[in-house]
């Protein structure tokens, strides 16, 4: 009787096992180089962008500085370029969240809390402010300006259970080369992806702003010694070859997604290299917050909050991973 019951249960499980076996394994990316970054006095590297042939970075603790990275030596030098942002437009966030961000700025610095940087083909830069859920454009010539985002962007996001928690707002952005379409990443609890397109008056949602909204927990890589599950999150975005790429911090992976629907198509892990014992931080969650993707590979930057790794390194670190075999657009 028991044997027959077990056989029946096994038969029922076969379709599930067969489906799981057809899912491609998440391949590990190959590390080409590791570079500590000097010259960012507050550290907290929170965004990377390849603008032409130059790599740029931003810190979430500095409101008026972007950094051009001198990559000619193994240890990189960050060269500060300053700007002055105009007053921030109203965010549409409730008072509770706005006051929490305001209070936090006195403790940690960085009222604007820039969490991502991107650029278009002309070299215009775009920075996303998490605290104010706003996007600043730094044009090649002229003064910085805040983009007139669709006024329903925040309300649609919150109706989808995004942007509900302090320090879990917009964590990354990317823009297409033409500079007329912009994607934003809501960080966690829930995480989401949103898109707007440039129109004569504002950056419009074209119906729905929210491409994806999802909650749930992520099973962490086996190398993580403590907590086994953390909330699903997005830490940054990149746009390359018509695809959207998400940096999924707690899962230690990069995923390719459809730029119109945000549907996940394929993922690649960097856990094997990031979680080598010497590279670990004493933190129960991932610390990679910056992503840039090109034909040859991906740059992944760490916002270490000035914590030291196991090997004693306290500076921000950027890794260079090779593109996967067949390129980023290869089918699973």
From TrEMBL:
- Source species of the chain: Pseudomonas rhizosphaerae
Q: Does the keyword Isomerase apply?
A: yes
This protein's source sits in the domain of life called Bacteria
| Domain Phytase-like span(s) in chain numbering | 41-189
**Annotated GO MF terms:** isomerase activity
SUPFAM superfamilies for this protein: NHL repeat (SSF101898)
* Signal peptide interval: 1-18
Q: What is this protein called?
A: DNA topoisomerase IV subunit B
UniProt cross-references to InterPro entries, sorted A to Z? Phytase-like_dom (IPR027372)
Q: Which UniProt keywords apply?
A: Isomerase, Signal
Keyword Isomerase attached = yes
A Pfam match:
Phytase-like
């Amino acid at each position: 009787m028991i044997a027959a019951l077990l056989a029946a249960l096994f038969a029922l499980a076969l379709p599930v096992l067969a489906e799981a076996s057809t899912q491609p394994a998440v391949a590990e990316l190959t590390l080409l180089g590791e570079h500590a970054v000097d010259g960012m006095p507050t550290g907290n590297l929170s965004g990377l962008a390849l603008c032409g042939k130059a790599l740029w970075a931003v810190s979430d603790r500095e409101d008026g500085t972007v950094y051009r990275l001198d990559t000619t030596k193994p240890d990189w030098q960050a060269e500060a370029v300053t700007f002055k942002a105009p007053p921030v437009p109203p965010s549409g966030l409730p008072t509770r969240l706005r006051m929490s961000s305001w209070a936090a700025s006195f403790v940690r610095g960085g009222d604007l809390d820039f969490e991502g940087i991107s650029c278009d083909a002309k070299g215009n830069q775009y920075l996303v402010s998490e605290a104010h859920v706003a996007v600043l454009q730094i044009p090649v010539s002229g003064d910085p300006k805040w983009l007139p985002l669709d006024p329903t962007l925040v309300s649609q996001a919150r109706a989808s259970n995004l942007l509900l928690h302090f320090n879990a707002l917009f964590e990354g952005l990317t823009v297409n080369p033409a500079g007329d379409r912009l994607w934003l990443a809501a960080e966690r609890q829930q995480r989401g992806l949103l898109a707007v397109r440039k129109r004569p008056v504002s950056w419009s949602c074209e119906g729905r702003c929210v491409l994806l909204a999802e909650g749930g927990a992520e099973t962490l890589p086996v190398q993580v010694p403590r907590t086994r599950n953390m909330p699903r999150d997005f830490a940054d975005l990149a746009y390359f070859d018509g695809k959207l790429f998400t940096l999924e911090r707690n899962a230690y992976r990069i995923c390719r997604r459809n730029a119109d629907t945000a549907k996940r198509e394929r993922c690649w892990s960097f856990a094997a290299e990031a979680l080598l014992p010497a590279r670990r931080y004493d933190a129960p969650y991932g610390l990679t917050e910056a992503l840039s993707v090109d034909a040859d590979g991906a740059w992944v930057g760490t916002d270490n909050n000035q914590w030291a790794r196991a090997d004693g390194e306290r500076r921000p670190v950027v890794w260079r991973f090779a593109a996967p075999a067949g390129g980023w657009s290869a089918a699973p």
